[in-house]
Amino acid sequence: MSVMTKTIAEETGGQIYQPLLCKIGSKRVLTPLETLFRIELPEGRELGHRPGQFVQVSILGYGEAPISISSSPTRKGYFELGVRNAGTLTGAMHELKEGDKIGIRGPFGTFFDAEKLAGKDLVLIAGGCGLAPMRSLIQYCEDRPSEFGKLTILYGAKTPGDRLYKEDLVEWGNSNTFACNYAVDGVPDGACFDEGQVGLITVLIPPLSLDVQNTVAVIVGPPVMYKFVIAELKKKGLTEEQIVVSLERYMKCGVGKCGHCAIEHLYCCIDGPVFWLNEISGIRGAI
Ligand SMILES: Cc1cc2nc3c(=O)[nH]c(=O)nc-3n(C[C@H](O)[C@H](O)[C@H](O)COP(=O)(O)OP(=O)(O)OC[C@H]3O[C@@H](n4cnc5c(N)ncnc54)[C@H](O)[C@@H]3O)c2cc1C
Ligand code: FES
Known about the structure:
Elements: H1 8-11, E1 20-29, E2 34-40, E3 54-59, E4 63-68, E5 79-84, H2 88-95, E6 101-108, H3 114-117, E7 121-127, H4 131-143, E8 151-157, H5 166-174, E9 178-184, E10 196-198, E11 215-220, H6 223-235, E12 243-246, E13 262-263, E14 266-267, E15 274-276, H7 277-280
Parallel strand pairs: 7-8, 7-11, 8-9, 9-10, 11-12
Antiparallel strand pairs: 1-2, 1-6, 2-5, 3-4, 3-6, 12-15, 13-14
Bound molecules: flavin-adenine dinucleotide and FE2/S2 (inorganic) cluster (FES).
């Protein structure tokens, strides 16, 4: 492998515990709470990630947190993180300026396997912040549409103002690559929403016209969403072998050592976060 394609783990001699200092190339405000950080590795190196993976972000004195990689590996020279200002580390990150440095370990975790998804019609279903990891797969599909069949995006958020990546939502909606269906739970007084339906994300599933034998659904969202979305997909005829989920659990080490992310015998950080539903269907607390 050439030096230009080394991953961070290779960069640090395979040392998964040691953060590499990377530069914040740019910041873009997504919502009052969420910002998109474009991160550049030293000397133009690539992260070497796959869609659905995450990194551990650290700032000296503020700790570390897992954050999904929000851009596709097909976009070279940087990677992006969509971060909610939720606490100690993410709050400190929002205070940083372009040009400041953060520590990065990773990429970690399982991923949306483009080889296994090749040739399939994909229904990409994201709720709320779930669009952060899903965006990596959406961009991948956007850059390599010939590898897949029909591509459908379903996105739901609480209100129109809570929607992430609004510019991307418009772009995907206008493209010939995707069929996009959006929903919001509700519209506050004075706001307007004419780009989709008002209702929970599940309202978007019954009208879908699916080639059931050749479809895979991918789901990322808040825990409450999975049970209901999966039930609707099963009503359409999809089996657990045709559903991929990404699960979020509280994590510390990110590399299978501390046990914080355990779901029965599985560690979400190394066995997940991406699972085929049939792999976890019997596991209590997984969904
Ligand atoms: C695989 C993965 C991917 C993620 N991707 C993203 C992403 O793309 N963007 C994003 O914004 N966030 C993402 N997160 C969530 C993010 O890692 C957490 O919100 C993290 O806690 C933020 O760190 P912090 O120091 O800013 O917040 P903290 O100071 O840790 O506080 C954040 C929240 O976590 C709660 N908390 C603190 N300790 C515990 C505990 N022991 N158990 C349960 N709850 C606790 C706090 O009460 C608070 O509500 C992801 C998490 C995982 C596991
Ligand atoms: S976060 Fe430590 S084992 Fe998964």
